[in-house]
Amino acid sequence: MHLWRPIPQYAVWVVSTEEPSRQLGFITVHLICWLLIYILMITMDITDFLGIKQVYYQATGRPAPATLKSQQLKSLHKKVRHPSFLGFLMIFWIHPFMRLDRLLLAVVWSLYMAVVWRPGVNDYNYVIQQQAAKRSVM
Fold it and tell me: Torsions phi, psi of 129, nearest 5?
């Protein structure tokens, strides 16, 4: 990332945000996207997904919880590496100004998602089921 250089002289589009309602619209969309990312991380049990939970149990000397993932979760992870990518995709595309470097990033991200993601109805139902389980615990 430290080698990324913006290309400010090539603007693909520029939407004026001087109007308060337009600025509020972009801010609202971005806040909704970040909220979506946060909710999906909780739904997917991000601490377990990243291995933080396993390190915590090992460091505190506690017995590890059952580490066997359900077949539904394994199936979902094969098709959708992480559902928060959708929120990031929206953040990349819905922006008041699109420079050439940002367009490149958005196009590559979109192509990656179009080629790699293949979720089905069972995957969707599993995510909804997990989200309901998390809500009942909170």
Answer: -65, -45
Concatenating the DSSP letter of every residue in the chain gives -TT----TT-EEEE----SHHHHHHHHHHHHHHHHHHHHHHHHTTHHHHHTHHHHHHHHHTPPPPP-PPPHHHHHHHHH-S-TTHHHHHHHHHS-SEEEHHHHHHHHHHHHHHHHH----HHHHHHHHHHHHHHHHH-
Name the phi and psi angles at 130, rounded to 5.
Answer: -65, -40
Question: For 66-120, what is each residue's pLDDT tens digit?
Answer: 655 666 666 666 656 666 778 888 898 998 988 888 898 899 988 988 787 776 7
Residue pair 119/79 in contact by the 8 Å Cβ criterion:
yes
pTM check: above 0.85: no
Question: Distances from the Cα of 129 to the Cαs of 9, 36, 61, 122, in angstroms?
Answer: 47, 16, 31, 10
